[in-house]
Amino acid sequence: GQQLNQSPQSMFIQEGEDVSMNCTSSSIFNTWLWYKQDPGEGPVLLIALYKAGELTSNGRLTAQFGITRKDSFLNISASIPSDVGIYFCAPGGGTYKYIFGTGTRLKVLA
Amino acid sequence: DAGVIQSPRHEVTEMGQEVTLRCKPISGHNSLFWYRQTMMRGLELLIYFNNNVPIDDSGMPEDRFSAKMPNASFSTLKIQPSEPRDSAVYFCASWSGGYNEQFFGPGTRLTVL
Prior knowledge:
The structure holds two protein chains of two kinds.
Chain A: E1 4-7, E2 10-14, E3 19-25, E4 32-37, E5 43-49, E6 55-58, E7 61-65, E8 71-76, E9 85-90, E10 104-109
Parallel strand pairs in A: 2-10
Antiparallel strand pairs in A: 1-3, 3-8, 4-5, 4-9, 6-7, 7-8, 9-10
Chain B: E1 5-7, E2 10-13, E3 19-24, E4 31-38, E5 42-50, E6 53-56, E7 65-71, E8 74-79, E9 88-95, E10 103-104, E11 108-112
Parallel strand pairs in B: 2-11
Antiparallel strand pairs in B: 1-3, 3-8, 4-5, 4-9, 5-6, 7-8, 9-10, 9-11
């Protein structure tokens, strides 16, 4: 079946550092969604990307839709303790509406 | 809207017992998904409904698992009999279609002893 590989799988960073993570697929997608799951909660949408090459920001978050349409990147600047959680990518919509990436688990050290 | 509502939030049961998880989707959303999350396997789709009809149940592990959606505002996931390997967090999500995001409930943490 379809797989979305995320890297890194997990990371520990110091508060204030920037974070980068990515998501790759063997298929081309028209939409990329990035979700965050706080401990003890369900995933919540952070950013949506709808166009190849698109760069979108939401506060300290910046996400990019890869030009090949097979990957996407998420950056978090100046991390803070509440950034801890699991970050998922998902292609969104169509026949892939329920596929999620393997997740990147982020832990921030104060 | 209150968002997706799941109950119970936590369930501890003994092996062999029946477990029923409940979900109320967001009003007006016509698709509902049940997921299971574990450390080993991540977020796995179990089944999804569109307009109350099961569309894809290929992720349901085995016959011990069943799901129903008797109306647009309620769904259940039942495990009978439960086994320790069923221990996980079970999420329900609803979706309004198109390229919109899914809205997840808070999950039910199931522990089978």
